[in-house]
Amino acid sequence: PGPQAGGPGGAEISLDEFARVDLRTGKIVAAEKVQGADKLLKLTVDIGAEMTGIVAGIATRYTPESLVGRTIVVVANLKPAKLRGVLSQGMLLAASDAGGQPYILTTEEPLPPGWKVK
């Protein structure tokens, strides 16, 4: 079992703080390896009103080809950051097992890009 809310590994936040996080459905339209990085993939994700680029450390478990077309959950208002020289303008949600292997969070059905997750 993972850490409990407010317990080790996670401080409690208010509903107002959570509401600041813009979670959206996104459809992966393209994916490629990041040169010189074994764990990173660059994803082009349709989040409704726009396309965004996301760099994710999921290449140990997923190939670029296996991701195209999937519906994922994205943090759409994360401050952009450069990873290995590639701009990342969001973050996909994923869980990790005890060994650190990532498992992306997807939707049960393919939903349209840009739907608000709450």
Structure overview:
The chain is mostly beta strands. 8% of the residues lie in helices and 36% in strands. The chain is built from two helices and nine strands; from the N terminus they run αβββαββββββ. The strands form three sheets. The protein has a five-stranded antiparallel sheet with strand order 3-2-1-4-7. Strands 5-6 form a two-stranded antiparallel ribbon. Strands 8-9 form a two-stranded antiparallel sheet. The protein is globular. The protein starts with 14 loop residues before the first helix and ends in a 14-residue tail after the last strand.
What would a concise description of this structure say?
This protein is mainly beta and 118 residues long. The chain has helices at residues 15-19, 64-67, and strands spanning 23-33, 41-46, 51-56, 71-75, 81-83, 86-88, 91-92, 94-96, 102-104.
DSSP summary: helix tally: 2
Order of helices and strands: HEEEHEEEEEE
- Give the CA-based shape: globular
Mean pLDDT across all amino acids: 92
Tell me about the biggest sheet? Answer: 5 strands, antiparallel
Strands of the widest sheet, in order across it, are 3-2-1-4-7
Number of strands: 9
By oligomeric state, this entry counts as single chain
Beta-strand level of the residues, as a percent range? 35-45%
| Helix/sheet category | mainly beta
Unreliably modeled segments: none
Over the alpha carbons, how many angstroms does the gyration radius reach? Answer: 15 Å
Fraction of residues in helix: under 10%
Report how far the terminal alpha carbons are from each other. 23 Å
